[in-house]
Amino acid sequence: MNKKLTFAALAAAAVAASAFTSTSMHWDGSDTEGKVVTGSEEETAGYWYEYTDKDNDGDSKIVFPSDVEANTYGNFYGPLAEAYGGIKADVQIGTAYEYAFAGFGFNIVSENQEGADITSWGGICLKYSSTGGFAIELGIEDEANTTEYNNYKATVAKASNSGTSIGWAKFKQETGWGKKVDQAEALTKIAAIKLKFTSSSDFLLNEIGSEGTCAMYAIKPIASLGSLKAQLNGRTLSFGKAVKAELVNLQGQVIASTNGTSMDLSKVQAGVYMVRAEGLSQRILVK
């Protein structure tokens, strides 16, 4: 037996087994950090960024509102969302590069763009306005070699103040170029989510999330005696009175519970959850 090969195989298996799994993702215009909640504990995870075809000698550009400036920490997307309720920009696609593009994105695990298993997201939902269509692109880990940049994409139509949800079945690779990868495999190593434009558009993104987490799917509190409502302060969930309550993830698993006036969420992974109590069903975002 070749021990070196055996150890190498075990090491590779260990790396694969330790790959990060993101169970949910969410961001909306109420955020002041410019950071999507992906569940990753890495400091650089989730921050919005823009990209263009500049490295391909292209002249496409993204023009942001002139009345917004980065804060003292160098963060621009937080102040932008605070001013406009989301990411607002004029995407201008140039002519210098044959396959011109520009867009926005965020990394799921960290700025190093390691892959994450996002299978359980089920898809991606959006609330947006755009004068032109665009694509949601699943940026895979080591895309230069894995797909040769032919990543899975789904088309989003132009719309005004619209909400949509796109399941994984609608994400496809293009034909005639790049390297084909089975979708089930690809979904286990997605490094970034990108909103890619190939035509000029006036754009506003109010919300993005894993399937079922956007506001259009939110379950409103059910009326009850005392109008029970859960209030989240940091990592403590308060109810105002003693109740029997559960915190449930999007897969229906009970993550935490209480039989009192509050629930400690200090050990709960960041993400979107449902709070179920006596006469209450409410969505919360744990950061």
Instruction: Please write the CATH class name of the largest domain.
Output: Mainly Beta
Can you give the mean pLDDT?
A: 87
Query: What is the percent of helical residues?
Result: 10-25%
Strand content: 35-45%
- Tell me the number of strands: 18
CATH superfamily of the largest domain: Galactose-binding lectin
Distance between the termini: 49 Å
Specify the structural class: mainly beta
CATH fold topology of the largest domain: Jelly Rolls
CATH architecture label name of the largest domain: Sandwich
How does this model look, in words?
The protein has helices at residues 3-17, 77-84, 143-146, 183-186, and strands at 20-21, 26-28, 48-52, 61-63, 87-92, 102-107, 116-117, 123-130, 134-140, 152-156, 159-167, 190-197, 201-210, 231-233, 236-248, 254-264, 271-277, 280-286. Strand 17 (271-277) and strand 18 (280-286) form a beta hairpin. Residues 1-18 and 217-226 have low confidence and may be disordered. The chain contains four helices and 18 strands. The chain folds into two domains: 20-213, Sandwich (Jelly Rolls), CATH 2.60.120.430; 218-286, Immunoglobulin-like (Sandwich), CATH 2.60.40. The strands form four sheets. Strands 2, 4, 5, 8, 11 and 13 form a six-stranded antiparallel beta sheet that branches. Strands 3-6-12-9-10 form a five-stranded antiparallel beta sheet, with no helix packed on it. By secondary structure, it is mainly β.
